[in-house]
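Here is a protein:
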Amino acid sequence: MRRLEFGKERIIGVSTMKRKIGVVLLSGGLDSTTTAAYAKSLGYEVHALTFNYGQKLSKEVLCAKKVAEVLGIKHKIIDVSPFKDLAWYSALTHPELFKIPKERNIEEITKTIPVTYVPLRNTFFITLAAAYLESEILRRIEVEGVKPEDIEARIFIAANALDYSGYPDCRPEYFEKFNELLRLASKVGTQYNVDMKIEVPLLYKTKKEIVELGIKLKAPLEWTWSCYEGGEVPCGKCDSCLLRAKGFREAGIEDPLLVRLKREGKL
């Protein structure tokens, strides 16, 4: 529909604002929840994806569902459980074969890649997220008539290269190479020149800084789960629990998850 207004023709019903579409890999943990809240704060239309890959910490999936509900963002839980038997060399996919490391100091945690590493997990997840995001972009361009230059598309992942367990798919150079792959391997990159890329807002933040950002953004940290075990309460001994505790301790903030569990009489 067109209207002449003040001597100028303008199109009614078509916004000239950027369409900001963001897909967040939401595990239900501290970092991914903070990242989801961050993407929302930037004005993205957030689509959260949670992958059930047969992992030991399936409790995270339930937490991710609650986090998405509290944040008011779209959420899909995708069953990719056969991946468990492909990426079998990990304590998270086959805990009956490998023991989860516990009670290690921070130097030990960051020194070598632990057996909790899941082979090519981030590569698999980012590829799936990119397929979903590209589909959303193509619908807007080819069905809704949105101009490619009016679209800003991002995949948000909560990778960290400081207080982390040394996983190779959490390093800056990994994401740099993957962004180039997304451009070369996608229709939106090669035909429409849409800048679809990965955003890693926590990459250079310490756990303390991640905690502080989550609190600032009012992320629902009380519903997050970081423990590699799937019990009623965190074990407090695995690498993930120790790194989380370090972050809250250094930030001088009591962990909202522990506060909630105490209130519920579980601690």
About this structure: The two ends are 61 Å apart (CA to CA). The longest strand covers residues 45-52.
